[in-house]
Amino acid sequence: MRILIAPDSFKECLTAIQVATAISEGIRHVVPEAEVISIPVADGGEGTVDALIAATGGKIIITPSVDALNRPIHSFFGILGDGKTAVIEMAAASGIELLTLEERNPFITSTFGTGLLIKAAMEAGFTQIILAIGGSATNDGGAGMAQALGFGLLDKNRKSINPGGGSLGELHSIEYSHVHPLLQKVKITVASDVRNPLLGPCGATRVYGHQKGATSEMVETLELNMAHFARILHQEFKKDISEIPGAGAAGGLGAGLMAFCQAGMGLGFELINKLTHLEDHIQQASMVLTAEGKIDSQTAFGKTISGVAQLAKKYHVPVIALAGIVKDDLTELYNQGVTTVFAIGNGPMNLMESKARAEELLSSTSERIMRIVICQSKNNQAMN
After folding, report:
1. pTM for this entry
2. Longest Cα separation, the chain
3. Per-residue DSSP letters for 348-374?
4. Dihedral through CA 67, CA 71, CA 74, CA 80, nearest 10?
5. Which of 67, 84, 77, 185 is nearest to 137 (CA)?
6. Is 212 within 8 Å of 106 (Cβ atoms)?
7. What pLDDT, on a 0 to 100 scale, did the predictor assign at position 384?
8. CA–CA dist 78, 84 (Å, integer)
């Protein structure tokens, strides 16, 4: 039996590598002789750097940056095994996991730290950059990132606007004289975990603003500010990027990257699939176990489990998905190729306890799954 483990991270809890290890332990309790292959994957969110570094034999470079509230932090970017490509995770600087619940406020959180990571990679000599933009704490349209790279975002008095989505409505003009000279020499490929446009009911603010700390009243202001920001970008760069799929990713960072950095957009999972040769491993597997912190109706739209399932469906390989939280109608996910979904909780528990016990719960749930699989296998053999 050849079992492929291809999980994403559990947000604010476990890395994809830790998730894969826990699932593997559960499998080996039941079928120690099984050939188990672990490929931690990601969709452009947290853990993308780790997944790509592990897959390509690359390395991590530690570098200073700032968090979404512009506080100094030790951050990082990765170098792929080819030694030519840098991979950056915006969550490593501007991520929501770096802030407490009380600190989350998209009126003031900024992508400036992400811009500093881009600057560090460029100054280290890299002209190819992959930028994973999931897990943001921001809703500033990439304005902070642009400021870190030398763009002047000025109000009507020609003063720099303040950080955060709350100030985007004050933007009057963009100044270019101090833009980093290396920016025109670098090619940035965006790895996104969502395909949302910038504005509207499916846009950055209305879909994700609340989880970043915005009240309903703040969401309305942020949406108006973002619409104003989009008009300025259209005016300055002579193209409307607001409706491009992925423009709304990471609080509009997708739009900012396309406008200020001429970046190309792509689904993070597709990039991971290519660099890890995931499809080849799925084709050779007897079954696939995948996992994510939460599985809901949004999982079918570009998330890791959706991508894994669609690849497995091509080769008629069963897919079992595990999650800390399972909710909503999952019909579309089943249509994409997921065989069944298991919530790992084994009794009433709050979120804090669930996170603290995540590795144990993943292992025990995997063990129970494998006992069902082995039992069914024996029954099929007996019938034959």
Report:
1. 0.85
2. 82
3. ---HHHHHHTHHHHHHHHHHHHHHHHH
4. 30
5. 67
6. yes
7. 65
8. 11
